[in-house]
Design brief:
Strand content of chain A: 5-15%
Shape of chain A: elongated
Order of helices and strands of chain A: EHEHEHEHEHHHEHEHEHEHEEH
Oligomer: homodimer
Keywords (chains A, B): NAD, NADP, Oxidoreductase
InterPro entries (chains A, B): D-isomer_2-hydroxyacid_DH, D-isomer_2_OHA_DH_cat_dom, D-isomer_DH_NAD-bd, NAD(P)-bd_dom_sf
CATH architecture of the largest domain in chain A: 3-Layer(aba) Sandwich
Pfam families (chains A, B): 2-Hacid_dh, 2-Hacid_dh_C
GO molecular function, one term (chains A, B): glyoxylate reductase (NADPH) activity
Protein name (chains A, B): glyoxylate reductase (NADP(+))
Largest interface: A-B, 53 and 52 residues
């Protein structure tokens, strides 16, 4: 059965769920008390013919997690008006096609910002103070055998450059201020609402920082924003934390510089070809690797479910949506 | 040669270095430009006869790191007036004997507080958000194979009970406020200078907390302060972080509760029988183990070296010492 809605729910608005088979979110249970759900994965038809047969009248689509939504799929949906995203970044959605069609796109808004920021700070202290490496050292029995343990370095007083001072970057800055760090930032535009020094060029920010916290969106402009030149500017004691997207950092260059000790360390929640992580990183003691879960706690997931539900309700009530992505 | 000072430095005040052979601090290089250094480990004589032969006039002794200073050793030094400690806690020094003799004891003062607090926060986020466990997961290749990864829980909004609101506990509180945590504390006395709710009994603090941050000194009164009753009061989702001393927590009870999942997790920088860590902990995924290095960075070590030097200079100039331990 393609349309899972029974006749008693036929009066409910129709929404299309777009997801990879591995993203079977509990969100469906919340949505189906308010909407009729159309999920192509519940049909044996191929996606294209399913959409052509059943989704011509669909006005609203929800994208689960990071399921890629291509221009080809969007073109099969002539009535589409809104794409509700459930992630902080929306680089998996063809924003250009949405913009051309005038389709509104929403994201996770603030729902994930605190959890990502917490995780970014944890990754930073972990790299500087060697927390995960220390855990490996104790668990392997080496503490008892060898005694001495390589020291890390102090967080307080470090110059931290935030790349992308949006919802997440702002929360990172607020936390690191409490540790006595000195904050500066780079973003597309200077923000009049904050006092931190602004650098229009990320390379200048790197030159004047001990640490780069990469918190911006991945777009065609920001792909490999953290390139060899930026990493060299950061210098051999420098630390990079990436909680944005893997594509923001030139991963191969980062690996080269880490291996040659031309950069101090890295805390990475995201990678260019997730879940494939370059094996060279596994051999390094000055990196902390995280399986792209900086955003996720039960609390943040519940928050994004409620935000997604609210966005859909607003759409069908002709009210302003809660977390619209600005398409520039 | 017992006394390493040459004749040209005979006018310098004499200090006795007390250390385990494994603690050969660079501090000696700093001290010997200001003092004559007496180091029993540079002699082949046994300690007792060395002290009886060479140290009867010693007024000042410096203890490197956590080298145990017993009452028996102190009794061999009839002229001793000051013991300069280089650690935050001084449970390795027989404080009772010092008090009886009227010997002043100093510690690391504020020098280590920021670094310990940074590490305590990192251990907490690590346990809650499974940072080290995630690093193990990625490095072992399981992310690619299995995909899904157990989520942690959110830091913001958690009720954090600080056990011991001294230099370290206060810095921990300040940092966790920036993450949106709700702070309360237990200490010997209510502090008029802070607004956080005070609990006279640590068990009541545990009942009203999601997390306990153990930051107090180890004394005969605080040994096993975090006992089974306190851990049960904290509850099955509760997390304990210990950056004080191993003896503050009943380690065997903690292991039992962790294994039976009657407590949520633990971040431990200190253990009862360091560097021996109970093997049961190595099998647990909800603990983060650190080799008693929360205090140590090159920056904090330099700070404590300078503080120790300042304390010794003050002593020999009859000026007030910088970081006297209150002996109650």
């Amino acid at each position: 059965m393609a349309d899972q809605a029974g006749s008693e729910t036929n009066h409910l608005p129709l929404i299309l769920v777009h997801r990879l088979p591995s993203f079977d979110l509990a969100l469906t249970n919340i949505l189906q008390t308010h909407f009729r759900i159309l999920d192509p994965l519940h049909s044996s038809q191929p996606l294209d013919s399913f959409l052509t047969s059943h989704a011509q009248s669909v006005r609203a689509l929800i994208v689960y997690a990071l399921s890629p939504l291509t221009a080809d799929t969007i073109r099969l949906l002539p009535s589409l008006e809104v794409v509700v995203g459930t992630s902080a970044g929306v680089d998996h959605i063809d924003i250009s096609e949405c913009r051309n069609r005038g389709i509104t796109v929403t994201n996770a808004g603030d729902a994930f910002a605190e959890d990502v920021a917490d995780c970014a700070v944890a990754l930073l202290i972990d790299v500087l103070r060697r927390v995960s490496a220390g855990d490996r050292y104790v668990r392997s029995g080496l503490w008892r055998l060898r005694g001495e343990y390589t020291l890390g370095s102090k967080l307080g007083g470090k110059r931290v450059g935030i790349v992308g001072l949006g919802r997440i970057g702002s929360q990172v800055a607020q936390r690191l201020m409490a540790f006595g760090c000195i904050i500066a930032y780079n973003s597309r535009k200077k923000k009049s609402s904050v006092q931190y020094p602004y650098y229009a060029k990320v390379c200048d920010l790197a030159t004047n920082s001990d640490i780069l916290m990469v918190c911006c969106s991945l777009t065609s402009e920001t792909h490999h924003l953290i390139n060899k030149e930026v990493m060299k500017a950061l210098g051999k004691e420098g630390v990079i934390v990436n909680v944005g997207r893997g594509g923001l950092v030139d991963e191969q260059e980062l690996i080269q510089l880490l291996t040659r000790e031309e950069i101090g360390g890295a805390g990475l929640d995201v990678f260019e070809e997730e879940p494939d992580v370059p094996g060279e990183l596994f051999a390094l003691d000055n990196v902390v690797l995280s399986p792209h879960k900086a955003v996720l706690t039960p609390e943040s997931i519940e928050a994004v479910f409620q935000l997604s539900l609210a966005n859909l309700k607003c759409f069908f009530s002709n009210e302003p949506l809660r977390s619209v992505v600005q398409q520039e």
